[in-house]
């Protein structure tokens, strides 16, 4: 009887499933970056004969399995197949089960090429290349074609039952999604427009920027069409990614509805859990000798994995329950389940960070991946942070104090060069077109010394390992420094150097003046340089938010493809439900604040008296907030008020929001861009209005001026990318707290005459009747 299914699996996936055994071992072993891996491969290839074949596409069948992959290199004149791995440090640091995996991959490629070319036997060479020296360590073996084929068939037999199950799941999933009804019956008008745009983008393999106001149901309006497109576009996986944790709660609620509506609930939903939240033994190292949940992890994994995929709904609680019932680590079980989930819910860093797990695995496995990015107005700033870093003199000094004797010399030299540069620069802020040679050399020497130390002390964790990661990250960003990022040095006020420290750690003579702090920074300005290839590698990406600003702002700064689609979904609210007014006799500029403060708080009190209810008042800083709150209390003590504090824990934030009761009365003072300016839902009469006493522009500073100049140089002038566009995004986000449903009514007061300017009005929602 002919079986009805076929399952395609990569050589890497087949071997990872069948060859990994023993304990989990996450002790630090220095790893090479992808760029270093490419350099290592090129170095090996350059030493081979002219007929050396690289990146050989190979494929084989076993029953209903189709196995395929690309072998690194084959040298026909000596009949040798090579698997090349770029590493840091001696191969003895590579865990035994990882080396076994490398051999399994090489043997599988060997079986495929022997069958393809009719070879009787084959020499196999596992080539480890040192990332720094590019020296090779080669492990060799010669096997017959029959032995290679037997090993290949054994791996396929071990995987075949799982493959049949997965093929059945994929078939049931696609059949169910093709007939998936919308769980709420009818899509709302704006929601339908959004859903149609998402479906078209998925069908055309394009990126979509969707600006859609609060209240239309963006979560279901994006998830539903993409799930419907999953079968027709043969998507392997969907990632629903958010910039803030609150968005994941809404996504999981929507996915639960959609999964319940899917026939047979044939949809696996996985929530990414942060390691610090999932770890059961934070006091233990991640290896089998220290942690019981790492011991024999790969031997226990098959049963845990089988139960997980049958469960299907893999939120953090389910992952923990399944993992602990099988005695394995919940966090690393979740990492394994990423391979078998249909939808993954998590933070944006999983796709856009340099070490993002979702992007890295999708790229390695060749998945067709589609992304939904919620709260996408935050992605520019989040991505900038991912590709920025800094190193302060104080950090280096702390590392010197904690370092073993062997590291103190290079770390002192690094501290000394930082200090010298800070002392000698002409201003407290100094942009650098490149790193001075002396500092660059000191940083390189510190990196080499730290790498040697952690390689030779792999069981030690703590300050040196953390500092090594930090310095290595700085070095990698410096290596890729270009017009997309700024390099600068900042120093604080000059002070007298301290008296000589213990162990002779003082860097300058005690009588010498030195800066209080010196900080070297790499500030990414245009993350699109790093994100461009990620957007191109995805099947489709939809970025959606109520406040995306302008299409060009997102395209230029995020590196989106030229054919990215833009849609601005009309608001579901009748315009008359929101009264938007400009206080065009007020100026909230810094130099005018004291003079306008009385008028500002009088306006707040007048609006409150005419339309009593709960309001939010947003200010550009805590200082300004405190001045306004104090002046309102003096002039209008009858108006109830409460304020956001400079440092608020969860309980304090909840207490602030709890003051907004239905039909309540008072004004809550908050900072624009802070915890209460977005992601806050106060429907009905819990909030009837907002005052915004700022345009959200960043404060004037040397750094901000450099950012503006860099963006002007890249994209021309008069675009507002450095200040106006992101500032008005914050304003519209804050105003969006007022209307949360089609039945809500409210007021928004824009407290500055600059809101009358055409370039400002152009960035406000078109449906606002100002």
TrEMBL record:
Keyword Hydrolase listed: yes
Keyword Hydrolase assigned: yes
Domain Helicase ATP-binding as annotated: residue spans: 177-423
InterPro entries: ATP-dep_Helicase_C, DinG/Rad3-like, Helic_SF1/SF2_ATP-bd_DinG/Rad3, P-loop_NTPase, PDDEXK-like_dom_sf, RAD3-like_helicase_DEAD
GO molecular function: helicase activity
Any single Pfam family the record assigns to this protein: Helicase_C_2
Top-level taxonomic group: Bacteria
Keyword annotations of the record: ATP-binding, DNA-binding, Helicase, Hydrolase, Iron, Iron-sulfur, Isomerase, Metal-binding, Nucleotide-binding
Family the UniProt entry places it in: Belongs to the helicase family. DinG subfamily.
Protein name as catalogued: ATP-dependent DNA helicase
Species annotation: Pelomonas cellulosilytica
């Amino acid at each position: 009887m002919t079986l009805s299914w076929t399952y395609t699996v990569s050589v890497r996936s087949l071997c990872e499933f069948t060859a990994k055994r023993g304990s989990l071992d996450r002790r630090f072993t220095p790893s090479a970056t992808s760029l270093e891996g490419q350099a290592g491969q090129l170095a090996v290839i350059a030493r081979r004969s002219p007929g050396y074949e690289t990146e050989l596409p190979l494929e084989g069948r076993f029953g209903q399995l189709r196995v395929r992959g690309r072998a690194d290199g084959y040298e026909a004149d000596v009949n040798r197949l090579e698997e090349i791995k770029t590493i840091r440090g001696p191969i003895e640091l590579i865990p035994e089960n990882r080396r076994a995996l490398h051999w399994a991959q090489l043997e599988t490629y060997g079986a495929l090429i022997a069958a393809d070319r009719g070879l009787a036997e084959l020499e196999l060479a596992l080539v480890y290349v040192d990332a720094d020296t590019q020296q090779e360590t080669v492990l060799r073996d010669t096997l017959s074609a029959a032995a290679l084929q037997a090993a290949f068939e054994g791996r396929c037999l071990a995987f075949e039952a799982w493959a049949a199950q997965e093929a059945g799941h994929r078939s049931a999933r696609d059949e169910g999604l093709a007939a998936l009804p919308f769980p709420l019956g009818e899509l709302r008008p704006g929601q339908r427009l959004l859903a149609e745009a998402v479906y078209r983008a998925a069908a055309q393999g394009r990126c979509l920027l969707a600006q859609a106001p609060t209240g239309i149901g963006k979560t279901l309006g994006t998830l539903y069409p993409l799930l419907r497109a999953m079968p027709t576009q043969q998507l392997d996986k969907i990632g629903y990614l958010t910039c803030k944790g609150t968005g994941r709660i809404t996504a999981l609620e929507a996915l639960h509805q959609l999964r319940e509506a899917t026939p047979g609930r044939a949809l696996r939903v996985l929530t990414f859990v942060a390691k610090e939240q999932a770890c059961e033994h934070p006091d233990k190292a991640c290896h089998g000798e220290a942690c019981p949940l790492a011991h024999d992890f790969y031997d226990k994994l098959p049963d845990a994995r089988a139960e997980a995929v049958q469960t299907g709904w893999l939120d953090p609680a389910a992952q923990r329950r399944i993992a602990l019932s099988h005695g394995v680590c919940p966090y690393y079980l979740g990492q394994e389940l990423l391979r078998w989930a249909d939808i993954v819910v998590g933070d944006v860093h999983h796709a856009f960070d340099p070490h993002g797990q979702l992007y890295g695995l999708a790229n390695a496995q060749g998945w067709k991946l589609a992304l939904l990015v919620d709260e996408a107005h935050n992605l520019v700033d989040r991505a900038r942070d991912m590709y920025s870093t800094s190193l302060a003199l104080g950090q280096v000094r702390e590392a010197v104090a904690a370092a073993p004797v062997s590291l103190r010399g290079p770390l002192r030299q690094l501290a000394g060069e930082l200090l010298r540069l800070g002392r000698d620069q002409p201003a407290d802020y100094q942009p650098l077109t490149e790193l001075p040679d002396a500092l660059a050399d000191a940083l390189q020497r510190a990196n080499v010394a730290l790498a040697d130390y952690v390689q030779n002390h792999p069981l030690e964790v703590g300050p040196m390992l953390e500092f090594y990661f930090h310095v290595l990250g700085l070095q990698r960003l410096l290596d890729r420094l270009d017009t997309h990022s700024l390099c600068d040095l900042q120093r604080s006020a000059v002070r007298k150097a301290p008296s000589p420290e213990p162990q002779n750690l003082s860097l300058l003579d005690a009588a010498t003046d030195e800066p209080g702090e010196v900080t070297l920074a790499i500030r990414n300005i245009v993350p699109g340089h790093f994100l461009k290839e990620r957007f191109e590698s995805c099947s489709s990406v939809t970025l959606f938010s109520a406040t995306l600003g302008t299409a060009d702002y997102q395209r230029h700064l995020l590196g989106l493809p030229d054919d990215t689609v833009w849609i601005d979904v009309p608001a579901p609210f009748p315009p008359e439900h929101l009264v938007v007014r400009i206080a065009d006799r007020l100026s909230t500029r810094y130099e005018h604040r004291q003079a306008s403060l009385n008028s500002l708080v009088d306006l707040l009190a007048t609006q409150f008296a005419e339309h009593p209810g709960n309001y939010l008042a947003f200010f550009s800083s805590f200082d300004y907030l405190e001045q306004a709150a104090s002046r309102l209390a003096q002039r209008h003590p009858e108006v109830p008020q409460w304020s956001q504090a400079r440092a608020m824990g969860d309980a304090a934030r909840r207490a602030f929001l709890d003051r907004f009761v239905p039909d309540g009365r008072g004004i809550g003072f908050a900072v624009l861009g802070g915890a209460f300016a977005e992601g806050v839902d106060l429907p009905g009469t819990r909030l009837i209005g907002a005052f915004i006493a700022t345009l959200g522009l960043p404060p004037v500073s040397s750094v901000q001026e450099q950012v503006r100049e860099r963006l002007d140089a890249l994209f021309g002038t008069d675009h507002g990318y450095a200040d106006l566009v992101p500032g008005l995004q914050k304003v519209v986000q804050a105003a969006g707290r007022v209307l949360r449903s089609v039945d809500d009514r409210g007021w928004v007061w824009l407290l500055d005459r600059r809101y009358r300017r055409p370039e400002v009005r152009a960035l406000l929602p078109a449906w606002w009747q100002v």
